[in-house]
Amino acid sequence: MSSRDEQVRTAGGRPAALLAVRISPSDVGRRVTVRHRIDGSQLTDVVGVLRSWADGVLRVERRTGEVVAVAARDVVAAKVVTPELSATAMQRVAQAGWPPFETASLGEWELRASGGLTGRANSVRVVGDPGVPLEDALAHVSAWYAERSLPAILQLPEPSLWDDDLERLGWTPARRTTLRTVPTADLVAACGPVPDGVGAELSADPSPELLALVEPSLDPEGLARILAAPAERVFVALRGTDGGLLAAGRASTASSPAGRWAGVTSVAVAEHARRRGLGTAVMGELGRWAAAVGAPSTYLQVMAANEPAIALYARLGLVLHHTYVYRSPGPISSR
């Protein structure tokens, strides 16, 4: 069965939707959603892991363990969907895309420090049991960060089993960030090509010009160290006909128990170039790179208060996976 588009009509004969088959036998092992006909005309959906595709039959295993056999000729729409991972598992994936300079373990908690460059790289990734009573764990955390002249900050998916006790001990929420996901193929389809008159440059390392655009308030040397740390990464720069930098972004890959992910970070558009669709164009270039390197799922992180960015990403198909919060016994910076 080759990829195809098909209009499914309602009972009144009007076109209801344009459906596309965007999977192939190469997607065996991935989580998919398949819309197919039963009894000749009725449509139904099955979501699960594509276990096999042979002799004209797809076999999809649901979460319950049930395996549904679907004749390829009956499929009218199908696509890869993001794998089911817990918030803590996705936090591990995200850390691989934004790795800290230094780490230390406290039971299952992971302490991270990077000279104060962003909260993600200078906070405790709280998962599981620290191995000691909570008060002792917090004292250890505070001392460890004080040795590095950094504030003590915890990063926790929300809600967390620790929330009530942390509130009682004065570790209050400072800010919230959302992690959003999308099948890479859907992201590419939503973005379209780079606009006319704009050129795209892809590189493995960031230029000083790109760093100044995407994170102007951060130390460029330390930022470059974080951004260039993943082994598989790309930096996209969009330039106008005069060579000026209009927009930029970065992506890297990471593995998980449910497959490979591309993580998008540092998307920025120059102030004079906004409202021209260049943020979408950067996302499209990063999505095409992710598809080319075999990452079927893409994620990004964006502050919960950044409503314009969230609206853009929603239009591109990114949906909320989870929210996480930073907690501290005192005020912390906006980053």
From TrEMBL:
Any single Pfam family the record assigns to this protein: SH3_Rv0428c
Lineage, uppermost ranks: Bacteria, Bacillati, Actinomycetota, Actinomycetes, Sporichthyales
Domain spans labelled N-acetyltransferase: 197-335
Gene3D superfamilies assigned to the protein according to its UniProt record, in alphabetical order: 3.40.630.30
PANTHER family to which the protein is assigned, alphabetical: N-ACETYLTRANSFERASE (PTHR43072)
InterPro entries, sorted: Acyl_CoA_acyltransferase, GNAT_dom, Rv0428c-like_C, SH3_Rv0428c
Name of this chain's protein: GNAT family N-acetyltransferase
